[in-house]
């Protein structure tokens, strides 16, 4: 009946109706295309940033851009080509390479987006998170939860580079960005050999009684050491005899991810081993810690070497094959958010 009335009235009435829709900031659903798709259709694309390019450009930045002139951090953000120039690696995750030169200091600040650091190369930098000094070394995972003051200082004669991953795009989408500078003239340069979070929470299956607030949304253990991760992967592969293994970093006080918005995992593939094709909803950032091989993401194939970073769009097929050496991959995803919303899905892919 509605269609016949429009036909009888002629196109001028219909055109007028659509114009009135627009004038009142309304859009008719029947004219919308692509709003509901048969499968995820992310704007981001598969992409790989090569370690050679990152290190060369980072070195030039350290020579030409001091911390004070480049803001309080010297960071190169990964900008996915599918996101129209936005400084985001994926729809939901910011990722970047941060460079700190010998004896440099990055002063304290805090922000509502949560952050993590995964050390790709070097050691000798300390990050203080809410006053807790955390030494950073290759393969370590360091947490900077939402609204925790954090600063970096490098007392060593060597530069360091690490991967930063933040949930910044998510928090920005929700209009919940807050940022606050700490004291610019008071940089705590302690170099405690063991952090307070490790003293209390780095003991498997053992946590202090009465110390941890269960309402805290993130892990109280703020650093996960590479030595422990390596030992776990070796033990699992030795016991199973499989060619690949994956471990997940967890909150030691409960069955939860290290932070409510980001999942962190470490994958190890034996020489000439493979991770079979799979796909999952949500996006992922992958950093190569060691070894080489090949990653296939959708229709893209990347040769991998230590220090490379690549991204996997939602529902894109992903497979990995190691070359002659062992391949270690660090993976961050937005899976906790999708699981909380009951829209996380994963399956083998052909």
Q: Explain this structure to me?
A:
- With 350 residues, the protein is an alpha+beta fold.
- It contains seven helices and 22 strands.
- It has helices spanning 2-9, 11-23, 51-64, 168-173, 196-201, 226-240, 335-340, and strands at 47-49, 75-77, 94-100, 105-111, 115-121, 123-129, 132-137, 141-144, 150-153, 160-166, 179-181, 223-224, 244-248, 263-269, 274-280, 284-290, 293-297, 300-304, 309-312, 318-322, 327-333, 346-348.
- The protein has a six-stranded antiparallel sheet. Strands 2-3-10-5-8-12 form a six-stranded antiparallel sheet. Strands 7-6-9-4-11 form a five-stranded antiparallel sheet, with no helix packed on it.
- A hairpin with a 2-residue loop joins strand 6 and strand 7.
- The chain is globular.
- The model is unreliable at 1-8 (pLDDT under 50).
Residue fraction in strands: 25-35%
Strands of the biggest beta sheet: in what spatial order? 1-19-16-21-14-13
Helix/strand-derived category reads alpha+beta
Overall pLDDT, averaged?
94
What is the element string, with H for helices and E for strands? HHEHEEEEEEEEEHEHEHEEEEEEEEEHE
Number of strands: 22
Question: Mind telling me the C-alpha Rg?
Answer: 23 Å
Helix proportion of residues, in percent? Answer: 10-25%
Sheet with the most strands? 6 strands, antiparallel
Individual helix count:
7
Query: Which geometry do the CA atoms define?
Result: globular
Distance between the termini: 47 Å
Q: What low-confidence regions span 5 or more consecutive residues with pLDDT below 50? A: 1-8
């Amino acid at each position: 009946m509605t269609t016949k009335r429009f036909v009888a009235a002629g196109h001028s009435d219909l055109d007028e109706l659509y114009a009135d829709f627009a004038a009142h900031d309304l859009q008719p659903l029947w004219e919308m295309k692509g709003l509901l798709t048969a499968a995820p259709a992310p704007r981001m694309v598969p992409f790989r940033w090569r370690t050679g390019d990152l290190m060369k450009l980072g070195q030039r930045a350290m020579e030409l851009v001091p911390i004070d002139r480049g803001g309080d951090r010297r960071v190169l953000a990964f900008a996915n080509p599918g996101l129209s120039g936005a400084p985001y690696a994926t729809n939901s995750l910011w990722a970047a390479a941060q460079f700190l030169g010998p004896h440099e200091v990055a002063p304290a600040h805090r922000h509502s987006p949560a952050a993590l650091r995964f050390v790709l190369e070097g050691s000798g930098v300390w990050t203080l998170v809410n006053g807790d000094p955390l030494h950073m070394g290759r393969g370590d995972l360091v947490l900077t939860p939402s609204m925790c003051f954090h600063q970096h200082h490098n007392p060593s004669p060597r530069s360091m580079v690490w991967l930063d991953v933040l949930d910044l795009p998510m928090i920005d989408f929700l209009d919940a960005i807050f940022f606050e500078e700490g004291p610019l003239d008071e940089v705590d340069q302690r170099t405690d050999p063991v952090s307070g979070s490790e003293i209390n929470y780095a003991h498997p299956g053992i946590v202090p009684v009465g110390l941890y607030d269960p309402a805290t949304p993130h892990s109280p253990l703020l650093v996960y050491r590479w030595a422990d991760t390596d030992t776990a992967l070796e033990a699992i592969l030795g016991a199973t005899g499989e060619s690949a293994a994956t471990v997940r970093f967890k909150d030691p006080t409960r069955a939860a991810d290290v932070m409510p918005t980001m999942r962190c995992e470490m994958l190890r593939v034996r020489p000439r081993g493979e991770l079979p094709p799979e796909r999952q909803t949500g996006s992922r950032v992958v950093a190569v810690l060691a070894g080489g091989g090949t990653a296939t993401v959708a229709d893209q194939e990347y040769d991998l070497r230590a220090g490379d970073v690549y991204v996997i769009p939602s529902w894109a097929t992903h497979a990995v094959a190691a070359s002659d050496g062992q391949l270690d991959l660090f993976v961050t995803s937005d899976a906790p958010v999708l699981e909380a919303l009951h829209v996380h899905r994963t399956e083998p892919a052909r």
